[in-house]
Amino acid sequence: MGLFLIPRLFNTKITRTILLLIFCIWVPIEVVVGAGNATVSSSRPRSVTIGALFTSDSIIGRAARPAIVAAVDDVNNDPNILPGTKLNFIIHDTNCSGFVGTMEALQLMENEVFVAIGPQSSGIAHVISHLVNELQVPLLSFAATDPSLSSLQYPFFLRTTHSDHFQMYAIADMVQYYEWREVIAIYVDDDYGRNGISVLGDALAKKRAKISYKAAFTPGASESEINDLLVGANLIESRVFVVHVNPDSGLKIFSVAKSLNMLIGGYVWIATDWLPSHLDSIQPADPDTMNLLQGVVALRHHIPDTDVKKKFVSNWKSGYAGLNSYALYAYDSVWLAARALDVFFNEGGSISFSKDPRLQNTNGSVLQLGSLRVFDGGQKFLQTLMKMNFTGVSGQIGFDADRNLVLPAYDILNIGGTGSRRIGYWSNHSGLSVVAPETLYAKPRNTSTINQRLYSVIWPGEITATPRGWVFPNNGKPLRIAVPHRVSYTEFLGPDKSPPGAKGYCIDVFEAAIGLLSYPVTYNFILYGDGKRTPIYTELVTQVAENNYDAAVGDITIVTNRTRIVDFTQPFMESGLVVVAPVQQEKTSPWAFLKPFTVEMWCVTGAFFLLVGAVVWILEHRFNNEFRGPPSQQLMTICWFSFSTMFFSHRENTVSTLGRLVLIIWLFVVLIINSSYTASLTSILTVQQLTSRIEGIDTLISSSEPIGIQEGSFSWNYLVDELNIAQSRLKKLKNLDEYYKALMLGPKNGGVAAIVDELPYIELFLSRTNCAFRTVGQEFTKSGWGFAFQRDSPLAIDLSTAILQLSESGDLQKIHNKWLTLNECSMQLGQDDGSSRLSLTSFWGLFLICGSACFIALTVFFYRVCCQFRRFNPEGEEQVEVEEIETARPRRTLRSTSLKNLIDFVDRRETEIKEILRRNKNASPSSSV
């Protein structure tokens, strides 16, 4: 039945059309598939091989092996990666030996691997990197963290974990955060340890800190060797220990430290990422191990909690070693190689090897160097690796311009109890923070010290307060403190036959400050100098800088060249250079009565006397007969009235309201001026006036006379170097007697014109000589006295705080009063430079009030006169005879308003003007008729 239907179906037009469409579609599909299979088979090999190098029997190796195996299986099971190509792997055990690792690497390269994963050891990586450079096989190291491996010397070395460069800068930020200044580095003496600690030293230097002691030990050192090493380190004053060792031997350090009682309060232990890797690998935690690490702070690679990581952790086989960060980096290294190879193939690359003519088999040698092949596409594959960017189980996998893994970050852990707690993070994007780095990456970069923050830490000994970070060394040696052996001014500093061997103001300040410290300080005073001459203080400070003394205590001035080589405490005494010179009593001048006022004051006062006299005359002239008469008499009246008000003896009475107002204000001004003049003149005539021909440092610089300075003082260098005074003019003086004698003799008799010395010495000198001399000019330098310590000594900081406490409590002043009781005398010589004379500045307000009153009175007066004058000359054409007033005067019209008429009008008496205005007002109606 079916056979009969088929021809009929083919005979139909619809059936033929359907079969034609099926044929047209089917044939191209077969062609495309066939062509695709041909492409895969022609450019992509059926299998490729990667190699792996690490120490199997190690903490890192035991976690890396299953991670690499899992990564290879996951790549082969993913159809999107290397389709049609199987990824194989070969693992060689380096056995933690540079020699064995080199041999294993040579054997590995005989298998024509296109990439090598590992090694875990930085030392082996240095050796193998030369081999992969020659064969152009990229080396992806998941555990070699030596910062020097990133150099251009190893172009085929690509690190898939973070360099120790970043870890050391994280530790430096922690040291700065807790305000420590010195650390002790404990490290294994190989490429990994040395180069990491070298970077730590550079990072600390940028934070004004340093490594005070490097405790290096050989790989595989015994406990006795480590014990000797820690005993030596414990003699150093620093108590901040940074441990940078291998995970397999690091716990031995803490075991020995525990036995030496170095894990108690006051100690700080910071471990690099080896310690969290070790603890993550031993699950569950060993109680004995955790007991060794109580209070330790450690850094661990920060792995973001992504879904990819959570899936990987959940699939981790329970039979494998504990999962640590290096296992995650090893896993991602395989995926990096697979993804890069897939891109490499897609861009037309191929896996091929060729012989290197330089690698030839040597006769009689079992080394088959001729079997090594160069990866032809190695350079291109390396560039492909560096361009990769994806998210793996360890976070973002990508490389910066320096071939470092991007986004370096660390968790900061505080170990306590049976585990650890995270106290914060560190990243090169934000420094120390309690916020996860991936959250801060969305914000602008900010590593300011103000924004650094960590949670509280429980330090060794279960102490929550931040340790000071240093103590006095446990070597039984007290501090060597140099004390200048002065031969003068022993009130400040001098030898003492009884302990402690020195006494004086400076010694008491130092001992009082030491007593305020929260820890004991042992020290010995050592006199510096022969006792015959006061030593040069700059040489003493140099001795401290050269470690011949631990500190110098005394009247040491803080100057620039000294601060470059030592650290000073907070100044405990203000100081500065002044000039002291002989003085003589100034002779009284016959013109001393003019001194109270300046020239400007005399001129303005005289002008106001005349002004007020003129104003009062104008205001009184129309009302008061005493202010009328011939011109010469009126001029004398003005002058007499003006200056008689100085003594309140004016006989003329004022009758006008405006005149009385001006006079009252002026008399008040005169009262103030008289009182001030009397007080100033009394002071000038009764107070003893002293003078000196030396007016200050400028006078000394411009002269050629000899200048006295204290022996050992910094003033010699200051006068010569800063003020360019010839050395031949300077004369060194030993004590107060020489000061006095030199000033009394003067420059003409072998003495000096003046002495330049620090203010505290001059105050004492003037007091001891009953104020026979005076300081002239102003203090021309500002400085202070402080105690000198070696650079970066933490004791300088603590003593500075103690000195401030002494000052605030008043104890510093009590010590000053005990040793430096001075006679009361005027220190500064009053120079007659006009500054003490009364000037116009002190009285311009009074003159302003008086002048304003005169102006207002005159304004009101002339306004009244103008109003009267207008009424006295009404508008119109009629003329008014004034024969009743003065029959001898000619007739004139009221419209003639010349200046002469106005002056004549003003000169009339007020009573006459009022009478004429009254008559004009009464006559006004009749004239209009």
Account of the protein in words:
With 929 residues, the chain is α/β, with parallel strands linked by helices. Helices cover 43% and strands 16% of the residues. It has 30 helices and 32 strands. The strands form eight sheets. An eight-stranded mixed β-sheet has the order 7-6-8-9-10-15-16-17, with helices on both faces. Strands 18, 21, 22, 23, 24 and 32 form a six-stranded mixed β-sheet that branches. Strand 16 (419-427) and strand 17 (431-433) form a beta hairpin. The longest helix is centred in the N-terminal third of the chain and has 31 residues, at 13-43. The relative contact order is 0.07. InterPro entries: ANF_lig-bd_rcpt (IPR001828), GABAb_receptor_plant_PBP1 (IPR044440), Glu/Gly-bd (IPR019594), Ionotropic_Glu_rcpt (IPR015683), Iontro_rcpt_C (IPR001320), Iontropic_Glu_rcpt_pln (IPR017103), Peripla_BP_I (IPR028082).
Keywords:
929 residues; alpha/beta; 6-stranded mixed β-sheet; 30 helices
